[in-house]
Amino acid sequence: xxxxxxxxxxxxxxxxxxxxxxxxxxxxxxxxxxxxxxxxxxxxxxxxxxxxxxxxxxxxxxxxxxxxxxxxxxxxxxxxxxxxxxxxxxxxxxxxxxxxxxxxxxxxxxxxxxxxxxxxxxxx
Length: 124
Ligand code: SF4
What we know:
Elements: H1 9-12, E1 15-21, E2 30-36, E3 39-45, H2 58-61, H3 63-68, E4 77-79, E5 90-92, H4 95-110
Antiparallel strand pairs: 1-2, 2-3, 4-5
Bound molecules: iron/sulfur cluster.
Iron/sulfur cluster binds near residues 24, 56 and 59.
């Protein structure tokens, strides 16, 4: 990235930095995100954040890939019927079907006889 202090917006694009928190795990480290024309160009730790004091892990530093990687998941996938785990055989399904499956499994595990098997975790 060019030094935005030595170039105009028309040469480099509009560069701005926003302070926010990383949502890639429950720690919620403070980060500074540099954008050019609204696109993320760089992520670094926020030195003023009381929790992480500038330090971010490799996962947090690579958060840009979560936004722009062509390999990121953008639609729900369901393992094809009969496919082995790890075989990477999936079919795209609708969001309605995905939420329906989650709801079905949630109700199954919240039945009294299955509650001991339920564990809830929220991660980005
Ligand atoms: S920087 Fe790493 S440890 Fe911090 S919130 Fe992001 S993923 Fe979690």
